Amino acid sequence: MTLPTRIKRFSVLDRLSHIFLMLTFLLQTATGFSRLYITTVWGKKVNTFFGGYDTSLVIHEWTGMVMMAGFALHTIYLLTRIDWRTPVKSIFGPDSLVPNLTDAKQFGQRIRWFFGLGPLPKFNRWAYWEKFDYWAVYWGLPLLAVTGFMLMFPLSTSRFLPGWSLNIAALLHRAEAILAVTYIFIVHFFIGHLRPSSFPMNEAMFSGSIPMHEALEEKSAWVQRLQEEGKLESASSAAPSLWYRRLYFMFGYAALIFGVYMLINGIIYSRQISLH
Amino acid sequence: MAKTSILLKIFVMLALVAAGTVLLLPPAASAQEEVASAIRRYKDREASTGYYEEYEVRPRRIKPLVGVPGVEEGIFNYSPTAAKVRNRSHLADSHMGIAFYKEKTCQTCHPEQAKDIHTVRANLTCRQCHGGEPIASNQYFKSPMNPIRKHAYVCAKCHEGSSASFASYIVHEPAPGSAAARKGFPILYFTYWFMTVLLVGTLAFFIPHSFLTGLRELFNKKRTTNDDAADAH
Question: Which of A12, A85, B82, B178 suits a disulfide with B78, CB 3.0-4.6 Å?
Answer without folding.
Answer: B82
